[in-house]
Amino acid sequence: MEREQWIDDVLNSVDNLNKLSPRESLLQDIRKKAMGYNTVDIKTVWAVAATIVLLIALNLRLIVTKNEQQVDVIPQGSQTDNPFSDNNQLY
Questions:
Q1: pLDDT given for residue 91 in this prediction
Q2: Is pTM beyond 0.70 here?
């Protein structure tokens, strides 16, 4: 019972505290700081986006070209023919 009384006292101790409220000019100060940041020109954004698309396209074309140049025939008796070694150990 004494423990429950202590818990109630602790929980009720915050009832007498005053609520804090921000000062009136806080929202205006935040807006001023947000307006102070520099913005990026839309042309720069489009140029970066186009560069990224171009790099992705070049990489994909290089991958496709490399895959076409690889030989499709696997030589007989190669390591890829039988994935297990001669003694059938996996590692």
A1: 62
A2: no
